[in-house]
Specification:
heterodimer; A: 445 residues; alpha+beta; PmbA/TldD fold; seven-stranded mixed sheet; six-stranded mixed sheet; 25 strands; 19% helix; globular; B: 404 residues; 3 domains; eight-stranded mixed sheet; eight-stranded antiparallel sheet; 22 strands; 40% strand
């Protein structure tokens, strides 16, 4: 395939991406396009530094390999380097979306028909408060090839399609945005979900009419599955990415395997081989992913690795080295990360709460020791009942305390497939999941 | 049938740093081409990343006329070229300068870990040509250094970020900036009684991008709807789209439809009065509002409204002069909150520094600030400094409240 240079480790990742999108706002088609791109990232490692180059010219890969190798220091012992030793040598082709399921077979007219059908079914004509209606469709198909100087030869594919609607609702001069998005790897699974969109639109219209500003303070909080998913990803998931602690004694001492980090109810897993938004057949260093329990019954049991972090911490590979696309180097990333569900019905969970907040939906979150989430829709809980909607701007808590403060897990586990995660300047598809959970105290502003 | 071609060539070279050491040396050369043909009110467009001959590109664009993407406006004409690039750094220079910075910081601040960061050079050339004779070319580039840091005893993944981005990058200024922040981080101080926020202003302009959309103003979905011609902000607050030499980085002087502006700028808010919303040709035609040369460069589809590059008119006073002895807080790491639909703003500050306007004094406990769009840029607006002493960039100064 390639004449890999001597005295260095090297690999080549080639990607062929095909994307399409449609956006219709108030019956005006603002986007309707198809975009294809091809490119490769070439990496060379001499045991001290990596050298990389990106090109759209696949005929230039050999030249790039030789050029990068000339920048590196020759190292005849490179294959005994701990990171390089860790690289798996897999030869495989996993084309999951070959044939009838290939989303590239969805024609432009099929896409337009889907969007028009939703616009008709979910029309807000006659609803005075709704000023704009926007429908958005996008699809992505990728084929990735990976070749390494150790002999890895992997071909894999990935695809995703997403549909969503946004309604701008005006009440008393304030605009609220109601939205509902679905994401899946199958075009057919995007169909026939108008009822969910309409229900969500009507919920936000009610919110726009009745929401009151939250009184800032600490509350018992009940988090809906999508919020638990965000909480799991942000508050703990990022701390399970091992690349942040390699030479950091304080963090290695804090996050030592076997330490009790949460209540007995809390178990969190990451698994790249699930058929969800964060699916990978192999990671971008050629490693086969496997389920990794990060927390089991409140005890820290694992973390996420690329080859370097696994070598430094002397732990097993997990298959979590991922890159946004061929323009980027892989780094340690989550895939499909979820908090295990429980068996408490929702009504049971809220019945003893005198004064609390039900966080129903969320815009985004961030995760440091103090994690944050910006809710898009909350309700006040009083005397065990869901009451008026409240307008809150941010929910915060300490990750060290909140994992212990989880005292109930719902029986309504959901895996959310619409998340994108940002880290190191790269946005990547992930899914996150969990049940409704109850947290004894979070700060709501 | 008319033809138009847009091309963007991006060159990006960096040295990535990971846990106090150089991790990788990387280079990206990217060429993007967008071919468009226009016939009977429709536009056929073909976009590709990578090289492609004009013959092949326009042939594919011609084929895409069948998709009937609407575009009924006249193409622009004109000839202009500018190159604002100052430093052009080679790969060797990038490696050498980043090694200098790393060596210095590791020796001077042994109690800190430089978690991840990079020293990089970026250059972009954007060009547009068409069959009516339009020939525009705009080149710009900058050198940038950023890194996240944490104290060795901290249990956080990151305690803060330090960055600087300049057309002419001065290593000594960056090092002095980093020294000041890392030294101040080790000195714990209390919150002042009155909270005056000091920060670069770009992150606070999100609501102006959102609410100055002329379509949203016309539809009534903007918080600024019904407020055109009214003074709703402080009289010292003026906001302009500006792609003149000094203001814009890698923002070409022509918009996504090839429109240029007198003086390369357009004023939207003058002395607190909202003058107009931004509109590309489609929005101006649809709602009968002034056309402001605000088309986004969409290489794969028809242009969209929203190509604005906002800058706040800066004061003629320095931070010290504007503050007159008062102290400020600088949110070195703040995330999770933002503006809500009413324009209310809440932001938890995970790491904040106390500042006298020019120098950082010490690290504050975690706190949360609150405000409202119309107060922050109204009665709470103190100004944008003329000097860049504290942040290596101009600072905005605004009065805020403390929240839970």
């Amino acid at each position: 395939m390639y004449d890999f240079p001597q005295g260095v480790y090297s690999d080549v990742r080639i990607e062929r991406d095909d994307k399409a999108s449609i956006l219709i706002k108030n019956n005006e088609m603002l986007h309707n396009n198809e975009v294809s791109s091809v490119g490769a990232i070439i990496r060379v490692y001499d045991g001290k530094m990596w050298y990389s180059s990106v090109t759209n010219d696949l005929d230039d890969i050999q030249h790039q390999l030789d050029d990068l190798a000339a920048l590196a220091d020759k190292n005849d012992d490179i294959y005994n380097d701990p990171t390089v030793k860790n690289y798996q040598v897999n030869k495989d082709s996993v084309l999951k979306y070959d044939g009838d399921t290939d989303i590239r077979r969805v024609t432009r007219s099929m896409r337009e028909r889907l969007v028009r059908e939703y616009l008709k079914n979910c029309s807000a004509d006659g609803i005075e408060e709704v000023k704009t209606t926007t429908a958005v469709y996008s699809q992505t198909h990728k084929i990735k090839e990976f070749y390494s100087s150790k002999g890895a030869e992997i071909t894999q594919d990935y695809q995703n399609c997403e549909f969503g609607m946004v309604f701008e609702v005006i009440v008393d001069g304030i605009t609220t945005r109601a939205r509902r998005f679905f994401s899946t790897d199958s075009f057919d699974k995007l169909k026939d979900r108008s009822d969910e969109i309409i229900a969500e639109r009507n919920r936000y219209i009610d919110y726009a009419h009745n929401a009151v500003d939250v009184e800032p303070g600490d509350y018992v909080c009940v988090l809906a599955p999508v919020v638990t998913a965000m909480f799991t990803h942000e508050s703990f998931g990022h701390k399970s990415e091992a690349d942040f602690m390699l030479s950091d004694k304080a963090l290695r001492d804090e996050w030592v395997i076997g330490k009790k980090v949460g209540s007995d109810l809390v178990s969190i897993c990451d698994s790249g081989d699930m058929p969800n938004h964060g699916y990978i057949a192999y990671d971008d260093e050629g490693t086969l992913p496997k389920p990794t329990w990060l927390i089991k019954n409140g005890v820290l049991t694992g973390r996420l690795h690329d080859s370097k972090s696994a070598a430094v911490l002397d732990e097993e590979l997990t298959g979590n080295s991922r890159a946004q696309d061929f323009h980027h180097l892989p780094i340690v990333r989550m895939t499909n990360t979820y908090m295990q569900g429980g068996d408490t019905p929702f009504s049971e969970m809220i019945k003893d709460i005198e004064d609390g907040i039900y966080v129903y939906d969320v815009n985004y979150g961030t995760g440091n020791s103090t994690f944050t989430m910006q809710p898009s829709l909350c309700y006040r809980i009083r005397n065990g009942k869901i009451c008026e909607p409240v307008r809150a701007n941010v929910v915060t808590g300490s990750v060290f305390r909140t994992l212990f403060d989880i005292d109930a897990l719902g029986d309504d586990f959901e895996l959310i497939n619409t998340f994108m995660c940002g880290k190191g300047g790269q946005g990547i598809e992930v899914s996150a999941g969990g049940p409704t959970i109850r947290v004894r105290s979070l700060t709501v502003n | 049938m008319e033809r138009q071609k847009q091309q963007r060539i991006s060159e990006y070279t960096n040295l990535k740093i990971d846990e106090n050491k150089p991790e990788s040396f990387n280079r990206v050369m990217k060429e993007e081409n967008s071919f468009a043909v226009f016939e009977d009110g429709t536009e056929g467009i073909y976009y590709t990343e990578g090289k492609m001959s004009d013959d092949e590109g326009f042939k594919k664009a011609d084929d895409n006329l069948a998709l009937e993407r609407p575009y009924k406006f006249s193409l622009e004409t004109g000839k202009r070229s500018r190159d604002l690039t100052k430093d052009i750094l080679t790969g060797e220079q990038i490696k050498q300068k980043s090694a200098e910075i790393l060596d210095y910081l590791n020796a001077r601040h042994p109690d800190f870990i430089i978690k991840e960061g990079e020293f990089s050079f970026y250059r972009q050339t954007m060009s547009m040509t068409n069959s009516l004779g339009l020939d525009y070319k705009d080149t710009d580039g900058y050198t940038s250094m950023y890194f996240s840091f944490k104290h060795k005893d901290s249990k956080d993944i990151t305690d803060g970020y330090i960055s600087m981005q300049k057309r002419e990058f001065d290593i000594n200024k960056f090092i002095s900036h980093a020294d000041n922040i890392l030294d101040a981080f080790c000195n714990k101080v209390e919150l002042p009684d009155d909270i005056i926020l000091q920060d670069t202003y770009y992150g606070y302009l999100s609501e102006f991008y959102k609410y100055l959309d002329a379509e949203d103003i016309a539809l009534g979905t903007s918080l600024f709807a019904g407020k055109l011609g009214q003074q709703v902000f402080d009289e010292r607050f003026s906001l302009r789209h500006d792609v003149s030499d000094k203001k814009a980085w890698t923002s070409p002087f022509f918009d996504g439809e090839g429109v240029t502006l007198d003086g390369d700028s357009c004023t939207y808010i003058e002395n607190g009065v909202i003058l107009k919303g931004y509109a590309d040709k489609r929005i101006a035609d649809k709602y009968g509002v002034p056309h402001t040369g605000s088309a986004v460069r969409v290489l794969s589809d028809i242009p969209q409204n929203g190509g604005v590059n906002f800058h706040i008119e800066q004061s003629e006073k320095s931070a010290r002069e504007l503050l007159d002895g008062r102290l400020t807080v600088y949110p070195i790491m703040a995330s999770g909150g933002g503006f809500n639909e009413k324009g209310d703003y809440v932001m938890p500050i995970q790491t904040g520094l106390l500042c006298d306007g020019e120098k950082f004094i010490g690290r504050l406990p975690e706190f949360t600030i609150a405000g409202n769009l119309f107060e922050m840029f109204g009665s709470g607006f103190i100004g944008v400094t003329k000097d860049e002493t504290a942040l290596g960039d101009k600072s905005i100064l605004m009065k805020m409240k403390l929240s839970k």
